[in-house]
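Supplementary Data S3. Sequence and structure tokens for construct A.
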Amino acid sequence: MEYRRLGRSGLLVSPLVLGTDNLLNPTGRDESMRMLRTAVDSGINLIDCSDSYKAGEAEKLLGETLAEGGLRDKVLVATKVHYPTGPGPNDRGNSRHHLIEACEASLRRLGTDHIDLYQLHRPDMETPLEETLGALDDLVRAGKVRYIGSSTAPAWHLVEAVMTSERRGFARFVSEQSPFNLLDRRIENELLPACQRHGLGVLAWSPMAMGMLAGRYAEGLAAPAESRAALRGGIYAERVTPEGVAMGNRFAAMARELGHDPARLALLFVKDQPGITAPIIGPKTVAQLEGLLPALEMSLGAEERRLCDELVAPDSVVASFFNSAPWMRWKKV
């Protein structure tokens, strides 16, 4: 396996990242632990979590699994902060208060003395950026966090963060985590070029478009009972549009004609795009995970790339995966 450098940092990460949003929600405890162990055994060395996944329980399970298997030193643990962790007005956002409190809580749940990659789950436009970056810098200097990053931020905000860190001598973002798949290619417009210019790695979430690109949704019918759209509703169901389902099924048919598993080809499309460090996969079962692992050693061919671009043009969008980004203007209409 060829490991990839995460931005301008010295970290080398696997070309697939394991996401943990499904741990305990809906995946059961035993299956969740098997998925984690299988991923590490396959060579995946970056596991992405959040203090908001299952209200912190995903972090606990991740920490327990790594400790029981003696795996902590084999992986880079990433987690995120931003969403509410309590009822109080300061139990959320990217203030110094919340970042420091939340980091300590994540360390306890993970059962570790440091977080390898600590990411802002969403930008906080109400908190001064210097306050946020200063708090993250303090956590790095204290040895509690080794690298920092962000998630689902606009390109201008990332550039401002990089410039602020350089001006103030703060720790610098090494990565951005954004939605990217064949149905939503908008980060190709500005965000990917900005990250390439300023040395940020890009971890892509929802590379299979919540299963639409795997052909798991039937046109005109309700979402399958086991899908996130059905299980969680809300922002997840909002992403599954008739246009997205129709295009996803066209892609799945094309993949099968080419002799590919649709989910795996969707993953390859993201993995091998310029500027992408690694897609984040979020399997619900060990079987789903094992079906995706061959992508670690595969590459997207020129013909497959051409056909994908013909289906959905670069920089364009069929179904929006930025619907959980409150800074997007259409969310305010």
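Construct B, processed identically:
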Amino acid sequence: MFFERPESGTKTLLVHIQQNDSELATVSELRELVVAAGLEPVACIESRRKDPHPGTYIGAGKLEEIAKVAIQVDAALIVFDEDLSPTQERNIEKELGRRVLSRTGLILEIFALRARTHEGKLQVELAQLQHASTRLVRGWTHLDRQRGGSGRGQGSSAGLGGAGEKQLEADKRMLSDRIKKINRRLGKVHRQRSQNRKARKRSDVKSVSLAGYTNAGKSTLFNRLAQADVHVADQLFATLDPTLRCLELPLVGEVIVSDTVGFIRKLPHTLVDAFSATLEEVTQANLILHVVDASAPERQERIEEVNRVLAEIDAQVVPQLLVYNKSDLVAKSPTIERDRHGKPVRVWVSALAGEGMNLLSDCLAELLAEDIVETTITLAPDQGRLRAQLFESGIVVSESTDEEGKINLELRIEQRNLERLTGVKH
């Protein structure tokens, strides 16, 4: 590969630069990212800077301070909580004599560690290669080597075959070839996902996608909703690979629920592009469950950041339901909040404690259901299987039996499901 991976447990010096008043730009988040990458944070230098220095981002004085602290704590790696240009990264490495990672590079390291499926690994490798392609010129001596032909057999003197191809040019060509190959493979994944979505639309199956800031509890909520076993951990980007499960909802019937990668401040564009096939599940959904960590002090800023990424992938037009998770940590009872038209806009739950999940299911059914009709149907005594199906779907309001033994069921159901289950047009 064209980029070196820092070893697990590498001592790391954090450089946190506050450029604006964003509540999301916190030292604790940077520390969590470093730990998630398997590195050991040993010290942190904080600074405020309005305008980045063009050559080193931080200026000579702060660079000198970093150099001294790095020696004191024996840090082999310097991680910046901002994105550095290739030139800035190269200049800082030259001055410090140590490996430097920007925020994007750090997040890519985490994604590389967490991807499990073949598709996930391809997506992460693509993002890494796209990032590395802008940083090939790093001052390493091996990129200055040249390979020339011997000139033999071409009427030339031995050893006078010309300069040949620079190693840098060869690396660029290999990068380009690998990117094209991965894009072709991901193209097949994209087409397969599109076919699956078309099949779901033909069968009129609705879909719900979970989105939210990383570590908001999406996977825990997903497991509660769909009775799934997605990996859950109290760390950033615990889940990368997309997971789809079926869910039965009252009135609506079968629904496909998908869990997606968590968003974060300054999520690298290379990752957004690389995960486009996965994130399309969000853009094509009938409803987005925007999961929010209710206990996070900066929860409003996190909501805005997630909405920014959703807009970037053209998912801002998809209806949203805000799910305030971890309500038990803020002593808030599970409840549904509605707009002035009575439509659910916010629901408070605790996925870990399993509180409020029935309210969330009610909200999903209410927001996804269309053309609700109330009708009564009559079943013969031998139609017990259909009767059981209707009760399992949660659409039976009441039941009675007449003198002839026929079963009268009062239903509250979507028109399309009524026709599908009973063949009755209301």
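The first strand starts at residue 11 and ends at 18. The two ends are 63 Å apart (CA to CA).
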